[in-house]
Amino acid sequence: MTLTNWTLALGGLGLLLLGMQMLTDGLKAAAGGHLQQFLERSTQTRLRAAASGFAVTAVVQSSSAVVVALLGFTNAGMLKLRQAAWVVFGSNVGTTMTAWIVALIGLKINIGIFAWPLIGIGMLLQLFRKQKLSGQIGVAIAGFGILFVGLDTLRDAFEHVVTMLPVEQLHVTGTGGIALAVLAGVVLTALVQSSSAALAIVLTASVSGLFSPLAGAAVVVGANIGTTVTAIIASFGATAHAKRLAAVHVLMNSVTGVTALVLLAPMWWVAQWLSGGEQVTNISSGLAVFHTLFNVLGIALMWLFDERIFRAVERWYKLPPLRTGAPRFLDKTVLEIPAMGLNAVQQEQSRVLRQYQIRLRTLLRDSRLAAANEEDIATGELLQHINDYLQKLSSKSLHGNEALQLAELHSYQSRLIDLRELVEKLRAATPTQIDASLNHDLRAQLLELLSGSEMKDRPQANWQALVSSIRATRNLLRSTWLQQIARNELSPTEGAVLIQLASHWERSAELITALQT
């Protein structure tokens, strides 16, 4: 085998990976917030969530990309763990489309007839419509074409590779051989960071006789287990939400993989029978059927055991307490799609606002607050995390509504910082001063404004009416204190402190109203 053949194989692999990357990136950029809206509408039941995962992965052609995106959606609070997990389960079935495309199209027709035109059309769209939705779709179309050119190049290269390798050593014999084939699948997928790409390589190699049927099936099992590596890497340094979903993904693929290995021979017999029987010399179709059976088996197992897995991962990875300074929704995964990052920041800012409401109600001695809610809260630390993420989001390419939403989040953050300063000034006062700065009416009005159970459904007119009442009461108190100072009933220093505190209460009410409406 010449150096040209080796470089041909390497180039084919590079084109395959480049094509998948372009296809995935183009579709993710084109989808944007629409992917979030689609998933929110279509994940209400286990079956619908699985169907959504299948559909998205069949289009994007990368379960790893879908899983990483789901880590971000879960972190951002857009999807619950159970919703996201069933999208992942369906996503595994969606990867079977890659196997079928390779087995039925990529290895049996003249790829150049449509692959090269796809590359040309896609790149022209990207060139002339760069800032438009059609430009991103063009990247995806070009990636689809490059993917097939890579497959064709790999197929030609493997025809030469097989003549140089001791193929008989790649035939599975015994438990050790099966374990070695599974390990090969895991390593291959971990290296290329895509089970779809790994399957394309395996099916392409199978045409040249590089694998025996059982060896190919065992490599397919390993490839499915190996796809969890991407999720594990993405969850490093991430929040508990991401770690939980990654753990579910690992457990699902591992349990399915072990079950499939136990049933390897009968499953391959069924796959062979469904693909045409022993007389079919090309095993790529059989491996595509086996891959489909494997992932359908995974869905069936999860239908029985999903709740046990969910409860286990929730025990392993605890969420930080509600009032900790550690972010619950922000990590690197939410930056994959700007819409996720924006939503995650919004969730964290809502946490900060809730924390300040608790502080203010504590200062007002709200009897409805439980003792556990009266602890101090590290809002300064959390605000810094939010600031850092806002800066990262600002460096992203945002358009239209996303850019407008980011500007609104910056404005919201500034108000939160102002509110923090006011709350800290109020907390610095003595209990006696706090009590003196409030009469019965002002305390009642502030508690009504800060009533958590009514905030969500309160009309904007009611918010403004409450603020007007608070302002009027504060003005009345100010006049009273000024009169007391004039009559020497109140020292100027004490009066100035009370007037300042009352002003802080009024300004806090105004900021809370602005942040809620």
From TrEMBL:
Database matches in InterPro entries: Na/Pi_transpt
Gene Ontology cellular-component annotations: plasma membrane
Domain of life: Bacteria
Subcellular location: Cell membrane
One of the record's GO molecular function terms: sodium:phosphate symporter activity
Pfam families recorded: Na_Pi_cotrans (PF02690)
Transmembrane segments: 53-73, 85-105, 111-128, 133-151, 171-191, 198-215, 221-238, 250-271, 283-305
GO biological process, one term: sodium-dependent phosphate transport
UniProt entry keywords in alphabetical sequence: Cell membrane, Membrane, Transmembrane, Transmembrane helix
Topological category with respect to the lipid bilayer: Multi-pass membrane protein
PANTHER family in alphabetical order: SODIUM-DEPENDENT PHOSPHATE TRANSPORT PROTEIN 2B, SOLUTE CARRIER FAMILY 34 SODIUM PHOSPHATE , MEMBER 2-RELATED
Protein name per Swiss-Prot or TrEMBL: Na+/phosphate symporter
